[in-house]
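Handoff note, outgoing to incoming analyst
You'll be picking up this chain. Sequence as last confirmed:
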Amino acid sequence: MKKTNLFIYTLLTVFVAVGFTSCQKSEKIGGTAVQNASGEFWVKLDNGTGEFGNDWYTFATYNTSSNKSDSIWVDDYANASSGKPFWQIKGKVKIDLSNLTFSGNNVVNQDYDSHFTITDGKILRGAATAPGTKTKTDSISFKIQFDDEDPSVVHTVGGYARTRWDADDHY
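Most recent structure output, in case you need it:
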């Protein structure tokens, strides 16, 4: 009799477990509203005279928590352990996904008490070549002006999307 009860208990447990797992709804995994404009980049910053230095900096664009297709974060990872910031900027800017352009006027800086303005921002698909692997990747460029700097100084920033190959990184 005990073997029959154990068999019934085991069988019942299996049916219940299968029943619960078969009732779970499979969610479709998708991207973000701005995934075509999101990424990490290696960029150079000019010194305000149009000449770029030799230093490479990390920079990222990514979706906001509202996940709307009209705005992105721009972030130079000032508070991260990887890479080095070129200024300490993090703020939300407007994006036009149809042509991958972005800009922001008097953007509140989340890294410290300041504002910045970005103009002429654009991401070009496949327009850059990574220096080590020679892999085609996206390019990014924009102009930026900081409110805690001489207002006549407008920096140009330009670079390429990270490939994740060591030969293309600048750590």
